[in-house]
Task: structure prediction
Amino acid sequence: MRLWWALRSALFVLWMAATVVPWALMMLVLSIFVRGPRLYWPTMVWLRMAVWGAKAICGVRYRVHGLAHLPTAAQQRSAVVLAAKHQSAWETFAFPTLMPHPLAYVFKRELLYIPFFGWAMGRLDMIHIDRSKRAEAWAKVAAQGRRLAAEGVWVIMFPEGTRTPRGRQGTYKSGASRLAIESGVPIVPIAASSAKCWPRKSFLLRPGVIDVSIGPPIPSTGRQSDELMREVEAWIEAEMRRLDPDAYPAAAQPAT
Result:
């Protein structure tokens, strides 16, 4: 069985490599003429191909719960900050294809050096930071995040900072809640059980269903960033235990 998964996963990696090169080159050429949403949506087509490839080749399906909690596509200026659980590469590919608004990821600048993928991503209006310069990085996130929120773009951050193994909980940092407070927008918690099918730091995919659960927006007005993030953390971790109970010991309790 594991060999079969490995063969399918290798075919999936080949699919991504074969499709990202021509698509990235097309987007780099397109970026000479257009920017903003007119570049964002065509670029997201490759992510749709990646998510489709995971489903068609490796049997990785998904279900989304709580889409009604998000502002609709018609509400162009209804910005939010998304704070999501991060277990694998799947959600970085899938979330932009699930949301009705453009997303701006906050990510480490080293990703820009990935051939083709990183080059195309660098042409989008996202926030890439140098993690070694924390004060400078936060100033950039705050300034660009406020501007993007004013334009109706949703900023998405992973509060744990990096991918966490299935059934584990990282340290939730308050960057997303600070940005929500400074931008005057709600923060939306998101749980995703992606490690069931796509383990952390691995391309050995397993067939199954990934559940994505979008929580109700939490107002940020008048809140303290640490206290607000604790509420986000409690919702996400409780929801993770509901979505993927086999990954957590029976005695484990949600973070408070």
User: Anything to note?
Assistant: The chain has seven helices and seven strands. The radius of gyration is 18 Å. The first strand starts at residue 60 and ends at 65. Residues 251-256 have pLDDT under 50 and may be disordered.
